[in-house]
Write a structure and sequence with these properties.
The chain is of the alpha/beta class and about 280 residues long. The chain contains eleven helices and nine strands. The protein has a seven-stranded mixed sheet with strand order 3-2-1-4-5-9-7, sandwiched between helices. Strands 6-8 form a two-stranded antiparallel sheet. α5 links the parallel β2 and β3. α9 packs antiparallel against α11 and α10 crosses α11. The protein is globular. The structure holds S-adenosylmethionine (SAM). The site of S-adenosylmethionine has 23 residues, from α1 and β2.
Length: about 280
Amino acid sequence: MKSDNQHPISTTREITEIYYDSAAADKFYFNIWGGEDIHIGIYDKTSDIPKASRQTINHMAALAPNLIKKSRVIDLGAGYGGAARYLASRYGCEVVCVNLSAVQNRTNQRLNVEQNLDDLIEVIHGSFEEITQADEVFDVVWSQDAILHSSNRKQVLSEAWRVLKPGGIMIFTDPMQTDDCPVDVLQSVYDRIHLDNLASFAFYRHTAMAHGFTECKHQDLTPNLEIHYSRILDEIKKNYPSACKQSSKDYIDQMIIGLRHWIDAAKAGYLAWGIITLQKPK
Ligand SMILES: C[S@@+](CC[C@H](N)C(=O)[O-])C[C@H]1O[C@@H](n2cnc3c(N)ncnc32)[C@H](O)[C@@H]1O
């Protein structure tokens, strides 16, 4: 499969899968990053990571009027499935989680059973670059901070378009670089999670319009990125001995260095984050 970056898609996927499946990453993301939600939070009147992470989901959900009982949602890169359980329990949506990490998928399935939501949520081990579902079967394509991992983001938007019903909505967040970010300043940012590059609001707007999506809107919520990464760093420092015990000292020390690069790049104005909504015409 052709990629628009330096690594072929399969290599990028393998690297990402190994990254999230490792015991060190699993323990770190589940215990320190935010529990069942591992995305950037919206720090509106809170500095609590899980609360802020939930605010992001609330905020996104409020922008998708077709989230109603029995509406069909696919979550691309669903992680531990926090958003899927929220959408299933709050709205009665039927959610398909597509996620590359088998380790995360097991936790997702366990939590769905524990919360009696497994009849509404299906968890699929797979890639959002090659979704196995039929054409035009979902009302909402949802994704949080996952598409950055793709080495072919145009293909992810093509797949989203294909599986959306006419009139369906794609709503997603992604850590990005700014539209005017200078070249060659973000290598240390990419290296933390093995990326070749990042998208930008302009990239998503152009790609979405080229596909025929209408109603291409974005909410720029960039200040939350620096706050979120700084809060994660605070939590690591506060829980350093136990974090090292769970994930190894080497992993945590590398994570601290990586997070500092992201915080510095955010302070320099090179990074962006926000919510993008696209509609497939009726
Ligand atoms: C930062 S986590 C976000 C997880 C979840 N969306 C959340 O907000 O809690 C990124 C997720 O993207 C998933 N991912 C990365 N590449 C993927 C791919 N090609 N297909 C499906 N999932 C992928 C990873 O397994 C990981 O769970």
